[in-house]
Amino acid sequence: MTNPTLIAGNNKVTFKSFGVDLVGDLYLPEGFNESKKYKAIVGASPFPQVKEQVLGTYGPEMAKRGFVFLGFDYLGMGDSPALPGEYKQSRYMFRLIENTWDAVSYLGTLPFVEEIYGLGVCQGGSIIASASVTDHRIKKIATVSGMMAADGFQWTDRNIANMMIEAANASRQKMYETGEADYNAPNVLTDEYTKEEFVGLGVNPMAADTYDYYGKDGVAGPGTIKNFTNMHIGDQAMQSLISIGEHYADKIVQPSLIIYSPSAFTAICSTQFIEKLTNEHEVLTFDEFGHVDFYYKPDAVKASTDAVAEFFNK
What we know:
It contains twelve helices and ten strands.
């Protein structure tokens, strides 16, 4: 664990998880004073992002609102290493949860941290929801365009789900036998597609929005963000098709805020999760925004970060 001299703004930090150093950005508010106490947020990002994407947008915004914010690269992603003998671009759900627990532990070592909250966007919503089930050090959680209830989204067409599983199984076997990484594009988008090519495939109902963010010409695509690629380890579906937070939703005790767009293709991932909650929770909807809008568009980011700040400050 590295604790450099900390200043307002973005600070590069590391902390241990699975015995290796995960790399993070610790955003501190203006006028930061180590002798004061602050509310801290551990951020969880969409799949398959690195810390410079959504977390690099939300971190400064939450710091402006007076919070300490930790965004970090999960094991095998971005600036964080893979385990010995394993491969980069290996974002596995169960490890994401444990990485998050270790991020909470790291924040707990900082003398200026008073309470710890969780904020997850897209897949990050599932990660934060899952992590909070048995980590009550996280005092409140908020999700934005969260993919918590993934069953109704990913398993609606069992044939497609089973095809994904078959391909993932084959990839895992290949990697075991060859000792070499096997990569594919789990969201179909590659680093080479033009927008016209990707939209023309007709396989993604959010294709245009997805490309505008992740494409090679996108605002946060491989041509813009260091260490990001749309390519991923080939056995990813063996874990990404399992949603823990959804099935333990009724066990979550922390007050929760769920923000989503009813008009978004992914709305069901929030609505079915909300139906299962038994805790104190609030729901905030923005019909004027789409799923990806919350990643980076100024009006959507302001709406969500204002709401999260108000909720965490209650």
